[in-house]
Specification:
This protein is mostly beta strands and 890 residues long. The chain is built from five helices and 48 strands. The protein has a 31-stranded mixed beta sheet that branches. Its main location: membrane.
Length: 890
């Protein structure tokens, strides 16, 4: 604990010094910009240039009082310019010496039709209403290979380890290419494969609407990105191909290619990615990814899917997935947009993904409760072969300026086979899982703009999905559950099928005072079929069907209506919503039938206060009812891995919860300072919990419905540009606390308290010269209290160094450190990677030399805690790799 406190003190001292440094020593030019009537002018672009070579030294904008302030490091002669809408630009020479200078300016009025404000330079950052345009050449550091690498270096963008892209704290809706959307929410296929060299500008669309008729009518907080490609590259077919092969490790490779053609009638984008170095290609996510907002027009059915009962896969560790993703992936994506005429557009997508994966795991599971205490040890090696293929077609018909018809159809099929060599407490077990899935989705959306600010949208959807699984064990350890059978092996067949249909009418009416009325009415019907049976093989080879079997049909019909009204008065905005849900539940199992028809009314209310343009405060309350899903109602056990069983049994029930959220934002992501804070309290008046029977050779988990659970969540994010360091500082803090109850081995309900904290910082430079850096650290501390107490403290740190020697030669070094405070030995793990690039621009060729895991760390061990014990697991990692690559653009 002393070590942790000491490190925390050093961390906070560093942050205080960084923040204070911005106010310590600075020579400034400041003043006020006003018009000819002496009125202050806001949002004037103030740019300071060197008088000799016209290089930009610094820039800013005037505040609400027309004041500005620019920091200058050296004395000399400069040119300072002022630009603002409806005013004549003005530039003046100044001589700056080593003292603060006051420079007031008066601008002459000038009529203009352009609606744009230049933030940094005339070409670097431009703001047009709800659009921000970034010229990427101003932000390149030389280490960009794909669009994902490019976005990491652009201001305002945050790219997570899994490829999720955010602008500020908002995840983007999509990434388009020259205004066309090839992938919808599957934008990682694009960002992880398209070459960064093809992109000239990045456009950010704020308050984005997926439907053109809803623009400026719906209350949209979505953000979309558009990539503007270089004009000189868009000649007939163009793209790139790259190949990298291992120098020191046999048969390690990565192949990536993009081919595009943007014609008047048809636009085509084909890509492929083959690699066995653990890299993600973006095709791992399904083609039917859910929409970010379930309340938007046409979102009906977006999160409906069937569940698989068993999955033999690796845990998601805290380090980069490429380090433990022992893969052999082959991906092909074919995408086309056909403009039949001025009114009809057809978009087609084909995605084919093959992969072979392997992982080797060692784990120690220490169970400790008031009734049992024991340790299980496992050694597991899993080999998986996977194939998935999907196709989608979108038909868009602009019937008129006020009518739009959208038809989307998607079909997906996949097969996955897993072989596992498991050793459980010195008992060898062979597992085999054959997993198949098939899904078809059809959706139609008709939109009619009834008036200038009124839209009616009609949506209909049909979804069919099935997931059959065959699972076999050649040795069982749970034989005590079946005393009448001398069990030697077992198999389980299961099939989960889901049918979903729905219709919805959605009216949006934007009033004259910018108030918004939304009315929605609809009906959905979901039918789930679950069949499963566990078959036991005795000593003589005879097959016995156990009592662990299910054959059920679960139907949920929902007739719903909701009304929502947003009213603005001054700087305040009030949102009130009322949901009516009439449920029709029916459950059939082996001739038994149960039905219910409950009616629920759910209110929600939110209030926001815009103190000024840069200060916003919000408060919201909601009350929700959640219907039991299939996994909560099925009435007998299913096997979920080699020794764990699950049963629903909660019956036809609903659970009720209430939530309260307070949020505050300061500044904007486009400014030098941006901060958000949020705290949420959730009260579950009743919820689905578990009663678990724990034995060294098996667990039996039963879903139960009990009362009272509380959760408290909070986070603070600060993003500040430090001028004196020419670097961007990000501070993050979050906490999570929950109190709930469950039962273990038929005990009385016991209270479980789960608390975790996460805090850290990241510092990224924005130098124009040879060198740039990116460093950060993150601490995570968690405690679980029941009849026992379990705690865990981990740390992750990184340091990336980038050297851009010239326009043709770049080198980058990446280092990571992982620290686990609860291990007695091997607490720290270090990783080192590097990449160098040499470009021959005349030939459009780039050579690369890449090294991964240079320290050749072979295994990685991590610790987890829960309310029933502690678990540590170690994985085999991808070995040291040295790749020589070449990329050719055409």
């Amino acid at each position: 604990m002393k070590i942790l406190l000491l490190k925390s003190q050093k961390f906070y001292c560093l942050i205080v010094l960084l923040l204070l440094g911005n106010f310590m020593y600075a020579q400034t030019i400041k003043g006020q910009v006003s018009d000819t009537l002496k009125n202050p002018i806001v949002y004037v672009n103030v740019i300071l240039r060197d008088s000799l070579n016209k290089q930009i030294i610094n820039y800013t904008t005037t505040d609400e009082q027309g004041r500005y302030e620019i920091t200058v490091k050296e004395a000399g002669e400069y040119v300072i310019s002022f630009n603002a809408l409806s005013y004549q630009p003005k530039s003046e020479k100044i001589i700056f010496e080593n003292y603060n200078l006051t420079w007031n300016v008066t601008l002459q009025e000038q009529a203009t039709e352009l609606n744009e404000v230049i933030i940094q330079t005339e070409k670097a950052i431009v703001v047009k209403k709800d659009t921000v345009i970034l010229t990427v050449g101003a932000f390149l550091k030389g280490n960009e290979t794909t669009v994902e690498d490019l976005l990491k270096n652009l201001p305002g963008f945050n790219v997570a380890a899994d490829g999720t892209v955010k602008i500020g704290n908002q995840e983007i809706e999509k990434v388009m290419v020259d205004g066309d959307d090839f992938f919808k929410k599957r934008y990682q296929l694009l960002t992880k494969n398209l070459n960064a060299d093809l992109v000239e500008k990045v456009e950010i669309y704020q308050k984005y609407s997926n439907n053109r008729l809803l623009k400026d009518i719906e209350e949209s907080h979505k953000v979309a990105v558009n990539l503007k490609l270089k004009k000189d590259r868009k000649i007939d077919w163009f793209g790139n191909a790259s190949l990298a092969y291992g120098l020191t490790t046999a048969n390690r490779y990565q192949v990536r290619a993009n081919a595009m053609r943007f014609g008047e009638v048809g636009k085509h984008y084909f890509l492929t990615n083959l690699n066995n170095i653990g890299e993600s290609s973006g095709g791992e996510s399904s083609i039917y990814i859910s929409a970010s907002d379930l309340n938007e027009v046409g979102a009906i059915g977006n999160r409906e899917m069937a569940r698989s009962l068993i999955c033999l896969d690796a845990y998601e560790l805290s380090l980069k997935k490429s380090r433990f993703n022992l893969n052999n992936q082959e991906l092909l994506s074919l995408n086309s947009i056909f403009k039949i005429n001025e009114k009809i557009k057809i978009i087609t997508n084909g995605l084919f993904n093959w992969d072979e994966k392997a992982f080797v795991q060692q784990s120690i599971q220490n169970y400790s409760t008031s009734s049992v205490s024991f340790t299980n040890r496992e050694s597991n090696q899993v080999n998986k072969t996977m194939f998935s293929g999907s196709g989608a077609i979108d038909f868009d018909y602009d019937i008129s300026q006020k009518e739009l018809l959208e038809i989307d159809a998607t079909y997906k099929r996949g097969d996955e086979n897993s072989n596992s060599q498991l050793e459980f407490n010195s008992v060898p077990i062979h597992q085999f899982l054959s997993d198949h899935n098939e899904r078809f989705t059809y959706k139609t959306i008709y939109t009619n703009k009834l008036a200038a600010k009124k839209v009616l949208a009609l949506s209909g959807v049909y979804i069919y999905e099935k997931k059959p699984q065959n699972y076999t064990l050649d040795t069982v350890v749970f034989g005590d559950l079946f005393p009448d059978v001398d069990v030697t092996s077992a198999s389980q067949f299961s099939n989960n099928q889901m049918y979903f249909t729905g219709f919805e009418a959605h009216l949006l009416d934007r009033k004259k005072k910018d108030d918004l009325l939304e009315l929605k009415i609809g009906f959905t019907n979901r039918i789930d079929f679950l069949k499963s049976h566990l078959d036991l093989i005795d000593f003589y080879g005879d097959e016995v069907t156990s009592d662990f079997k299910n054959d059920l049909k679960y139907t949920v019909g929902k007739l719903y209506a909701n009304a929502k009204y947003k009213i603005k008065f001054g700087n305040y905005a009030l949102n009130a919503k009322l949901d009516f849900n009439q449920l029709f539940n029916n459950f059939e199992s082996y001739g038994n039938e149960e039905s219910q028809s409950p009616l629920f009314v759910s209110p929600s209310l939110s209030l926001s206060y815009e103190i000024n343009e840069n200060n916003k405060l919000s408060l919201s309350y909601n009350n929700n009812f959640t219907n039991a899903s299939l996994l909560q109602v099925f009435d007998d056990y299913v096997l979920t891995n080699n020794k764990d069983f699950l049963r629903g049994g909660a019956g036809l029930n609903q659970v009720n919860s209430s939530g309260l959220t307070l949020g505050y934002s300061l500044g904007r992501w486009t400014k030098s300072f941006f901060a958000t804070a949020r705290v949420s309290y959730l009260k579950s008046h009743d919820f689905f919990s578990t009663n678990t029977i724990i034995d060294p050779d098996y667990t039996l988990t039963n879903i139960i419905r009990i009362n009272d659970s509380e959760t408290l969540i909070g986070d603070v994010n600060i993003d500040r540009y430090l001028k004196f360091m020419t670097s961007n500082l990000k501070l993050k803090f979050s906490f999570f606390k929950s109190d709930f109850k469950n039962s273990v081995n038929n005990s009385e309900l016991r209270l479980v308290q789960n608390t975790s904290y996460e805090y850290g910082f990241e510092l990224r430079s924005a130098f124009d010269g040879l060198f740039n850096y990116n460093l950060g650290t993150k601490w995570n501390s968690s405690v679980v209290k029941t009849t026992s107490k379990f705690s865990n403290t981990n740390n992750t740190s990184f340091l990336d160094l980038n050297f851009n020697f010239n326009q043709n030669f770049n080198a980058e070094i990446q280092s990571e450190r992982y620290y686990f405070g609860n291990f007695n030995t091997d607490k720290s793990y270090y990783f080192l990677d590097f990449e160098t690039k040499y470009k021959i621009k005349k030939r459009n060729v780039t050579f690369t030399l890449t090294g991964k895991n240079l320290l050749n760390v072979k295994t990685f061990r991590e610790r987890f805690i829960s309310d029933i014990g502690t678990f540590s697991t170690s994985y085999r990692l991808m070995p040291r790799i040295l790749l020589l690559g070449i990329d050719f653009s055409f």
